[in-house]
Design a protein that fits this description.
By secondary structure, the chain is α+β, with helices and mostly antiparallel strands. Helices cover about 20% and strands about 30% of the residues. Strand 1 (about 5) and strand 2 form a beta hairpin.
Length: about 170
């Protein structure tokens, strides 16, 4: 089973791990990563989650948890490779938001990646991802309004757009 590092509220390593799916101990936090992927036409790479996952059969962004010993950017790069078959160096990812969410006991790191990849060149991890699509913002909004898009993923994407973290001139309408 996959291990995750534990941190204190100041994001200092505790030198302890938990197993994926295990309850986060009191006064401890884990790291979660999410990657907003956009192509040069302004569309976003959206994946349909596998039906057995939380929010199964819904659309969302790529993300997960760094494994024990991985940094946040390394974990994000690992998720891209595992879920989509996209291999990139961690330094190619741009950290656009890092925050502590006390209610969930997580540090949430949101990354941005501008890349052009063909959908038929992706290697989807069937346990995590059913399919992948390039959606414009209108389609994402439509899927969210119809209840087909993971709400926290939609919120992170729209916040990045709202606060100018992503250049809106590159967003396909």
């Amino acid at each position: 089973m996959e291990q995750r590092d534990l941190f204190d509220k100041n994001r200092q390593p505790l030198g302890k791990t938990i197993t994926a799916g295990e309850r986060i101990p009191p006064d401890s936090y884990i790291v979660v990563v999410m990657i907003i992927i956009q192509n040069s036409q302004g569309d976003f790479l959206i994946q349909k989650r596998a039906k057995n996952k939380s929010f199964g059969n819904m659309y969302g962004l790529t993300g997960g948890h760094p494994k024990a010993g991985e940094t946040s950017p390394e974990g994000a790069a690992t998720e891209l490779t595992e879920e989509l078959g996209i291999k990139i160096a961690p330094e190619k990812l741009k950290l656009i938001c890092a925050r502590r969410i006390d209610a969930e006991r997580v540090f949430s790191d949101i990354y941005y990646l501008q890349i052009d990849v063909a959908l038929d060149g992706l290697k989807l991890q069937p346990e995590e991802v059913d399919s992948a699509y390039w959606f414009n913002l209108y389609r994402i909004r439509e899927e969210y309004n119809e209840g087909h898009f993971v709400p926290p993923h939609y919120e992170e994407l729209t916040n990045a757009l709202r606060y100018g973290v992503i250049d809106v001139s590159k967003v396909a309408k």
